[in-house]
Amino acid sequence: MQLPSLTIRNSKIETCIVQGGMGIGLSGFRLAGTVALEGGLGVVSSAALDRIVAARVGSKRPTHPREAAAIEITDAKKLGHGHPVGINIMVAVVRQYSHSVLGSMDGGVDVIISGAGLPLALPDIVKDHIRADEVALVPIVSSGRALDLICRRWKRSGRLPDAVVVEGPMAGGHVAWRTLKDAYDPKNRLENLVVEVIEEAKRWGNIPIIAAGGIYTHDDIWKYLEVGCAGVQMGTRFLATHESGASETYKKKILECKKEDIILAEKNGSPCGMLFHVIKDAPFYEEAVAQLRPPNCNKGYVLSRDLKCSSKTGTETLCICNGLLASVGLNPAEKELYTIGANGYRVDRILSVKELMDELKGT
């Protein structure tokens, strides 16, 4: 059965598939632009774009985050022939957050998706930009309570979410929960969360809901459409494409990994304080868990409230930025760190984006 389209504010996406924003460098302009060209919403990750764009244009110094976001979005839009393109911006990347928002708007972004924390300030950041009324704002939540809090705060700024991504505990990278007990609580399964958030969204004017986390097949997509979602977001399926930024070693590891190789890391975990899915025998992760050397915390992307890297780094948390940069070929001095969704073990081949989109559409 043909999948429906998805409309988010001023953007009509031909097929109701949102490609998840995966950092660092996994979903760059090439992946996002190609997904857009094939009828989905292609999404760039803003994480470390200052270094990613600098390497791409041959600069020896990081590009300013605002300029970097503008360049990446401009190039994605160009590759996608003007079809809608989004950006995923982590609240936890504190110092670059507003620069990434405004830079993406400069570059012509259509949809801003924001999570890894509650994006309470997002409407205030965009409101004075010339494109403020054009760009859709989409928070990521994992509960009806979080959506209620966001809507009440955003309403004071004259905006409500144009759509909402509901992310469950099977998602790749960071998830909302801080303990394994909470993440594995049956009430937090995605099929339960979407029902809760859909009910909350009705109170605010039937905001479109996009389900995310563990969605793998055409039939999975229809499962969530039939309970009232407007679309789905998928990350790991797009990670395993030729167009993703993952290194060849990374893609090979995805093909080799088994279900038991994918863990929800708690200790050592992310300095964000959130759990995150990782392939446990990734060289960077193995070294960090064994505490074979002090963490090299010299990038400063993921910061705690005092604007310093977590004081627990090296004991309860690991410094993830250098490992993630290595995994896209931008930090050869470091070992690689492989984030992945819980269903990543199901990947048995690397596809082109076109092949994947055709499969997901059921064509």
Could you name the CATH class of the largest domain? Alpha Beta
Arithmetic mean pLDDT: 91
Counted up, domains total: 2
Number of strands: 13
The largest sheet is:
8 strands, parallel
Distance between the termini: 9 Å
Radius of gyration, taken over Cα atoms and rounded to an integer in Å: 19 Å
Architecture of the largest domain, CATH level 2?
Answer: Alpha-Beta Barrel
Question: Number of helix segments?
Answer: 14
Strand content: 5-15%
CATH superfamily assignment of the largest domain? Answer: Aldolase class I
**Arrangement of strands in the largest sheet:** 3-11-10-8-7-6-5-4
Globally, the shape reads: globular
Uncertain segments? none
What is the CATH topology assignment of the largest domain?
TIM Barrel
Helix content: 25-40%
Give the topology, please.
Layout: E1 6-8, E2 11-13, E3 17-19, H1 29-37, E4 42-45, H2 49-57, H3 65-79, E5 85-90, H4 97-106, E6 111-115, H5 122-126, E7 136-141, H6 144-155, E8 164-167, E9 173-174, H7 180-183, H8 190-203, E10 209-212, H9 218-226, E11 231-234, H10 236-239, H11 248-256, E12 262-265, E13 276-279, H12 283-289, H13 321-326, H14 353-361
Parallel strand pairs: 3-11, 4-5, 5-6, 6-7, 7-8, 8-10, 10-11
Antiparallel strand pairs: 1-2, 9-13, 12-13
Helix pairs in contact: 1-3, 2-3, 3-4, 6-8
Question: What would your notes on this structure say?
Answer:
The protein is of the alpha/beta class and 363 residues long. The protein folds into two domains: 6-246 and 346-361, TIM Barrel (Alpha-Beta Barrel); 248-345, no CATH class. It contains 14 helices and 13 strands. An eight-stranded parallel β-sheet has the order 3-11-10-8-7-6-5-4. A three-stranded antiparallel β-sheet has the order 9-13-12, with no helix packed on it. Helix 1 (29-37) runs parallel beside helix 3 (65-79) and helix 6 (144-155) packs parallel to helix 8 (190-203). The longest helix has 15 residues, at 65-79. It is globular. The N and C termini lie close together (9 Å). The model has no long low-confidence stretch (mean pLDDT 91).
